[in-house]
C-alpha cells in the first residue's frame, strides 16, 4: 500500500498560491535540494491537477541545463493527472484520471504496491484529497515571506484535528521543512 504525501511550498503566513516571486524551483540551496531529491526518490508516482500538470509539462522537459536533477526525475516517474478535459497528456509516463470516479482511481493507486504518491501544487486537487481523508503526510517547505493573500493548503472550514510531527529542519536559505503525518480519527460514534 502506498502513502499519499502532499509537498507544498508555503509562505510564513500560510499561502501556497504563488502571487509573488518568493519561490523559484531552480534556485534552491544545496541542502534544500538534497532533501527534495531524497523525497523524490521515495515517490514512485506523482499525482497532479490539470493546471499544475500543464505548467510542469511546459517547463520541466524543456530544461537543458537542469542542475537540480528534477527534470530527469519528473520525466521518469509515472504521472497521474486529474482532469475531465485533458485528452492526450503529451508527456511520457503520464496517465489522465478522468471522469467522476477519479477519487476511486486515486484510492486504487494508494492500494497498489509501492512507496509514495507525491502531490504538489494542484491546490484544488489538494483540497479534494484532504476533504476525502486520503492524505497520509504533509511536507511543508515554509519560506520566510509574508504574502498577505492567496489560497491556503487547507480548505476553509476543514479541520484536521490530529497531526503528528515527524520532522522540523532548517535550511541555509532560511526555509524550514515541517513534516506532519495524519493520524486516524479514533473517535467512535455513540
UniProtKB/TrEMBL annotation:
Gene3D superfamilies: Dihydrofolate Reductase, subunit A. It holds the Pfam family RibD_C. Residues 3-177 form the Bacterial bifunctional deaminase-reductase C-terminal domain. InterPro entries: DHFR-like_dom_sf, RibDG_C, Riboflavin_Biosynth_HTPR. PANTHER family: 2,5-DIAMINO-6-RIBOSYLAMINO-4(3H)-PYRIMIDINONE 5'-PHOSPHATE REDUCTASE, DIHYDROFOLATE REDUCTASE FAMILY PROTEIN (AFU_ORTHOLOGUE AFUA_8G06820). This is Dihydrofolate reductase family protein. It comes from Ornithinimicrobium faecis.
Amino acid at each position: 500500500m502506498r502513502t499519499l504525501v502532499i509537498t507544498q511550498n508555503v509562505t510564513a503566513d500560510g499561502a501556497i498560491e504563488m502571487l509573488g516571486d518568493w519561490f523559484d524551483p531552480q534556485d534552491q540551496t544545496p541542502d534544500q535540494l538534497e532533501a527534495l531529491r531524497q523525497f523524490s526518490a521515495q515517490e514512485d508516482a506523482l499525482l497532479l491537477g490539470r493546471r499544475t500538470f500543464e505548467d510542469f509539462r511546459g517547463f520541466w522537459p524543456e530544461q537543458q541545463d537542469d542542475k537540480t536533477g528534477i527534470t530527469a526525475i519528473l520525466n521518469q516517474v509515472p504521472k497521474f493527472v486529474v482532469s475531465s478535459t485533458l485528452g492526450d497528456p503529451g508527456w511520457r509516463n503520464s496517465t489522465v484520471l478522468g471522469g467522476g470516479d477519479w477519487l476511486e482511481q486515486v484510492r486504487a493507486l494508494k492500494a497498489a504496491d509501492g512507496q509514495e504518491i507525491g502531490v504538489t501544487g494542484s491546490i484544488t486537487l489538494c483540497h479534494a484529497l484532504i476533504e476525502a481523508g486520503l492524505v497520509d503526510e504533509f511536507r511543508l517547505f515554509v519560506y520566510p515571506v509574508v504574502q498577505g493573500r492567496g489560497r491556503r493548503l487547507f480548505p476553509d472550514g476543514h479541520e484536521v484535528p490530529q497531526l503528528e510531527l515527524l520532522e522540523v529542519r532548517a535550511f541555509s536559505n532560511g526555509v524550514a521543512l515541517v513534516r506532519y503525518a495524519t493520524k486516524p480519527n479514533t473517535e467512535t460514534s455513540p
